[in-house]
Design goal:
Blueprint: E1 6-9, H1 19-28, E2 33-39, H2 51-58, E3 64-70, H3 78-84, E4 88-92, H4 99-107, E5 118-123, E6 141-145, H5 159-174, E7 179-183, H6 191-196, E8 201-204, H7 206-209, H8 214-225
Parallel strand pairs: 1-8, 2-3, 3-4, 4-5, 5-6, 6-7, 7-8
The structure holds D-xylitol-5-phosphate and zinc ion.
C-alpha cells in the first residue's frame, strides 16, 4: 500500500525566539509535519523543551505536531503533551519497562482538539526492530534513529537503512500501513536513499534550518522525496 511521503522538519535548531515566523516558513515550503524534539537531559545528554513549546506552536500552525519524546519516564508526561496539542507522540522503546501499556495509554489519549493522538515508538540506532515485534500491530509509526539522539547536525548512521528495509518488509507482510520515520543526519544529499529504504516520513533539522532558506530547502527536499 502506498503511503504518502511526508517531510517533518525538526525545530530543534530553529530560531525559537521567532517560532511563529519559522513555522510560517515551513508551511510556505510545503512541510507536512513539525517535529518537536523533547529532551530531558537524562535519557539524552541535552535539555530542550516540554509541553509549553507544543502549546505555543499549536497557536501558530495547523501542521501536524509530531512530538519525539527523548525522555525517561515518558508515562508521566504523555497526557500533558496531548493536552498541549500534540497530534502524534513518539516514545523511546529504551525509555520504559512497560512499552505495551504505554502504547495503549497514548492510543487512548485525545488532544486538545478532541482528536485521537497517534502513537509512535522510536528505536536508538543499536536497538533491533525485533524489540517491537509484539506491539507493532498497535503502532501508527516507528521512528528509526539514524543518529544517537541528543543533538542536531550529527553524521548519518548508514545501518539505519537496513533496519528500515527490514521493517518495511515486515509491515508489508502484515498488510499494515505503517509510517516509518527516520531522524538525524538527513538532507538533500541523502534523502533519496532514505526514501528508497522504505522510509516515508523524513525528519530533517540542520539541513533545513542552517540552510539560510528554510522554505526553499523544504521545497527542494519535498521534490527529492517524490
Ligand atoms: C536528534 C533529534 C533529531 C535532530 C535532527 O536527537 O532527534 O531530530 O534534531 O537532526 P539533524 O539536525 O541531523 O537533521
Ligand atoms: Zn527527533
Amino acid at each position: 500500500m502506498a503511503l504518502a511521503n511526508k517531510l517533518a522538519p525538526s525545530i530543534l535548531n530553529a530560531d525559537l525566539a521567532s517560532l511563529s515566523d519559522q513555522l510560517s516558513a515551513l508551511e510556505k515550503g510545503g512541510a507536512d509535519w513539525v517535529h518537536l524534539d523533547v529532551m530531558d537531559g537524562h535519557f539524552v545528554p541535552n535539555l530542550t523543551f516540554g509541553p509549553i513549546l507544543v502549546e505555543a506552536a499549536r497557536k501558530h500552525t495547523k501542521l501536524t505536531l509530531d512530538c519525539h519524546l527523548m525522555i525517561s519516564n515518558p508515562e508521566k508526561y504523555v497526557a500533558d503533551f496531548a493536552r498541549a496539542g500534540a497530534d502524534s507522540i513518539t516514545v523511546h522503546q529504551e525509555a520504559t519497562l512497560h512499552l505495551d501499556s504505554l502504547v495503549r495509554v497514548v492510543k487512548a489519549l485525545k488532544n486538545k482538539d478532541g482528536r485521537d493522538v497517534k502513537v509512535g515508538v522510536s528505536l536508538n540506532p543499536a536497538t533491533p526492530i525485533e524489540t517491537l515485534e509484539h506491539v507493532l500491530p498497535e503502532l501508527d509509526l516507528v521512528l528509526i534513529m539514524s543518529v544517537n539522539p541528543g543533538f542536531g547536525g550529527q553524521k548519518f548512521i548508514p545501518y539505519a537503512l537496513d533496519k528500515a528495509r527490514k521493517l518495511r518488509a515486515k509491515a508489508e507482510t502484515m498488510g499494515k500501513a505503517l509510517d516509518i520515520q527516520m531522524d538525524g543526519g538527513i538532507g538533500p544529499k541523502n534523502v533519496r536513499e532514505v526514501i528508497a529504504s522504505g522510509v516515508n516520513v523524513i525528519v530533517s533539522g540542520t539541513a533545513i534550518f542552517a540552510s539560510g532558506d528554510i522554505a526553499g530547502t523544504c521545497v527542494k527536499m519535498k521534490s527529492l522525496m517524490g
